[in-house]
Amino acid sequence: MNEKYKLLYLPLFEDDLSKAVDYITIKLKNPQAALKLISNVY
Question: Is the pTM of this model over 0.90?
Answer without folding.
Answer: no
